[in-house]
Design goal:
mainly alpha, about 55% helix, two-stranded antiparallel ribbon
Length: about 110
């Protein structure tokens, strides 16, 4: 006896391609911005840096996502300060439903 399953994955393929296209467009936009931009995952690990960051640091895209990225560009004292500030900010922003608004000021989201 033989059993078979047929699954149409065309929608999935189209969605994946759209996601890749959107990612390319976002990278083009961020690369055009002359300000250093580093995108981090939820754990604070860098996953992308725009062209301005790479030009300023002299690092490649692969260097940026390496585990020792920050150690290569920051002074050890500044690195410790950065880690402490990031820890504090993550507690405030991600755990208390706060966000940073357009003005750059912290805003808490209050609701029931």
């Amino acid at each position: 006896m033989w059993y078979g399953v047929s699954t149409d994955i065309e929608d999935l393929k189209q969605t994946e391609e759209k996601l890749r296209e959107d990612e390319r467009e976002l990278r083009q936009i961020t690369d055009a911005i002359p300000q250093a931009i580093v995108v981090q995952d939820p754990f604070g690990l860098p996953i992308y840096a725009n062209r301005a960051t790479r030009d300023y640091t002299g690092l490649t895209a692969d260097d940026v996502i390496a585990p020792n990225f920050r150690e290569r560009i920051f002074h050890p004292e500044d690195l410790e300060k950065f880690r402490n500030e990031r820890t504090l900010l993550s507690r405030v922003v991600f755990r208390s439903n706060s966000s940073i608004g357009r003005s750059g000021r912290m805003a808490s989201i209050v609701g029931s």
